[in-house]
Design brief:
mainly alpha, MetI-like fold, 2 domains, two-stranded antiparallel ribbon, 13 helices, 2 strands, 78% helix, globular
């Protein structure tokens, strides 16, 4: 009994330490971004930094307006969700409620492979296949654009949405669906009026993961978006918050205003993701109240 009690105490301590490591990591990242990002915002000015429409970090009189990056990230994420969420949700429904076990196994394997593909491979395929196709189809001079980035991001968020939504749908108690059938509902009516509403929390979690993947992606969109600090237009080369950091950080002198401004962009991106998670969680909790 004493040995079991000792093991329980040890494992409890291990779990506690692991939980504290997670909290310390989040607090450390938050503190570092605040300390590194605030000086540039203070020097440039919050309004000029957030709402300025020109980013010229290497000019003789540099300008550090990140509104083009913010809007591009917002439009790119929304566009990817408009395409990826319906496709991902319908695929999850197909796997959980419609497909036969053999077909579901094949599709699940494809989804797992899709999740394991590195970002740079998505970007490479997009650059070689998608960008020329966009250029030819829409008769553009250059296919690198916000549209190409949206298509790539829509494909990249599918595995997160599909896997989490499928798990949520499979976890719906069978009694709910049996009661629906007993009342005369068809299979499709049961899926859309019973199963999906019952699994909405899990589905929303998958969507949040997809949004996080879309807004935090850098390598793939860098290869297809064009990396130009333009105000966002669908068929125009643009730069995201993530790509703005990636493409310039290696060339920014240590301690310079340019480097500090890039840390400020990272801080804005971090706050942006936190706001999205907070708003969605608050919305779900409000919907779940009786």
């Amino acid at each position: 009994m004493k040995a079991k009690a000792a093991v329980e105490r040890i494992m409890g301590s291990v779990f506690f330490v692991c939980g504290m490591v997670t909290i310390v990591a989040v607090l450390g990242i938050t503190a570092y971004l605040i300390i590194s990002g605030i000086p540039a915002i203070r020097e440039i000015g919050l309004v000029d930094f957030l709402f300025g429409q020109v980013w010229q970090s290497t000019a003789s009189e540099p300008l550090f307006g990140i509104m083009p990056f913010i809007l591009t990230s917002v439009y790119g994420t929304l566009g990817a969700c408009l395409i990826g969420v319906p496709v991902g949700l319908m695929t999850a429904v197909f796997l959980a409620k419609v497909a036969s076990p053999k077909v579901a196994a094949v599709v699940n394997t494809a989804v797992e492979l899709l999740a394991g593909i590195p970002s740079v491979v998505y970007g490479l395929i997009g650059m070689i296949v998608l960008v020329p196709a966009v250029m030819r189809f829409f008769q553009l001079k250059n296919g690198t654009s916000l549209f190409a980035a949206i298509i790539v991001l829509a494909v990249m968020i599918l595995p997160s949405i599909i896997s989490v939504a499928r798990t949520a749908l499979v976890s719906v108690p069978g009694e709910y669906e049996e009661a629906s059938f007993a009342l005369g509902a068809t299979k499709m009516e049961t899926i859309f009026r019973v199963s999906i509403p019952a699994a909405k929390s899990g589905i929303a979690a998958g969507i949040v993961l997809g949004i996080g993947r879309a807004i935090g992606e850098a390598m793939a969109v860098m290869m297809v978006a064009g990396n130009v600090a333009n105000m966002p237009e669908l068929f125009k080369s643009v730069s995201f918050l993530t790509t703005a950091i990636t493409k310039e950080m290696a060339y920014a002198p240590t301690g310079s205003l340019r480097q500090q401004a890039l840390f400020s962009i990272a801080l804005v991106l971090y706050v942006f993701i936190m706001l999205i998670n907070t708003i969605l969680n608050a919305f779900l909790k409000r919907r779940e109240k009786p």
